[in-house]
Amino acid sequence: MYDPSTWKPFPGSQQSFLECPIFEALYDGTRGVGKTECLLMAFLQHVECGYGSRWRGVIFRRTYKELQDLVVKSQRWFRLACPGARWVAGDQHKWRFPDGEELLLRQAAKPSDYWAYHGHEYPFVGWEELTNWASDELYVTMMSVCRSGHPGVPRMIRATTNPFGVGHHWVKARFIDPKPPGTVIRIGNERERVRIFGRYNENKALLENDADYIRSIKAQSDPNRRKAWLEGSWDITAGGIIDDVWNRGTHVLRPFDIPASWRIDRSFDWGSAAPFSVGWWAEADDAPAVLADGTTRHFPPRSLFRIAEWYGWNGQPNTGLRYTSGQIAKGILEIEKAAPWGKRVRPGPADSSIWDVVDGHSIADAMAKHRVKWVKAQKGPGSRRTGVQMIREMLHAANGRTEDPHLYVFDGCRNWIRTVPTLPRDELKPDEYDTEAEDHCADETRYRVTAKRHTTRQREL
């Protein structure tokens, strides 16, 4: 018999999470608030309520290694709260309860892992550390298994996370940006969702018995990590490949008129199911620029300015428009026709894969038929690492106003600003960014900074 007295939620966020009637709920916040235990109890609270084998659940982590903490905590609390519960290890990896209820603890890393669960029926679907998934594709697809053929059985999707990780963008866009904590999010015909925010000071036992834990978080040298763990802040660039050299106040500029002698070109990263990204760049020579505030400034020659962009997404992080090469080419021409500098645009670097020939055709050839041409980006061994290092060096040079080339972004380039400063490092290759993240703006920026250098003053046309 389940004994609810063995574990009681803290008044505040834990209690709100357990009592939440909304179909989809995210529990986020600071470290130390007990989100994992609360996720387990969100399932357990419906055990022995008369649903029997109809109450089934699954909780996912991205890898089996990450799953072990969830297993350990479930063994601690389930055996205490429900002595009749039995842990089934091996391929099953699940809890079975006296009345027939079951909770599976499983690993799922990529969208194709959905097919191991296609057609299954789980009224309870849980996700631990949601930002560990690079995109929302698996999360959204798995919603189809959150169902029950029996009336009266509750259905719910529950997730926990800290504001950290490769999926920072899409989780923030789905749960954080639309509404304040505790406010129901309603978008079109989608099911209602909500976020529950918790703070470590709700956990009185932690404050009384393990004050060193909080002190260790406060002692974190990385200010972004400290904000994420201590404040639960999502306005961070924690773990980003450029977060130590990025300064929005320095690197983001209001648009100004591009001097006539500066070179203007564009870069391109192809995408269909994933976003494509087009960036327009101005390259400084020794001619000064008059900034938006009226001041005149000389920038080091070969400094780069991202003056415009076209990001091919449908408004959902890392999800593309599925445009054809012809549609993209026509869109580029329309943007350039409307821009005051549009007639000056020259072909710039693009992902070399667009020259791959399939059935006698290539994306590059198809775009060239619409008068949109490119040059091949440098994508040899080590090119990603080299490109990242050059981006970092140019941002660093802008911070110190050295005579080395700088890198700036106009404030209208919102998707660059949204995605690049928070790109996480690859865990296995820390000098590169994680390619599972939303890296499309970063890729075409990398193509541009590693492109062949041009003369310091170009001839006026």
Mean pLDDT: 91
Largest sheet data: 8 strands, mixed
- Please report the distance between the alpha carbons of the first and last residues: 84 Å
Evaluate the radius of gyration. Answer: 26 Å
> Helix count?
14
Derived from helix and strand composition plus strand pairing, the structural class reads alpha/beta
The total of beta strands comes to 18
- Principal-axis shape: elongated
Question: Segments where pLDDT lies below 50 for 5+ residues?
Answer: 455-461
What does this structure look like?
About 30% of the residues lie in helices and about 15% in strands. The longest helix is centred in the N-terminal third of the chain and has 18 residues, at about 65-80. Strand 3 (about 85-90) and strand 4 form a beta hairpin. Helix 2 (about 35-45) packs across helix 3 and helix 12 (about 385-400) packs across helix 14 (about 440-450). The strands form 4 sheets. Strands 3-4-5-2-6-7-1-8 form an 8-stranded mixed beta sheet. The chain has a 6-stranded mixed beta sheet with strand order 9-18-14-11-10-15. Residues about 455-460 have low confidence and may be disordered. The protein is of the alpha/beta class and about 450 residues long. The protein is elongated. The chain has 14 helices and 18 strands.
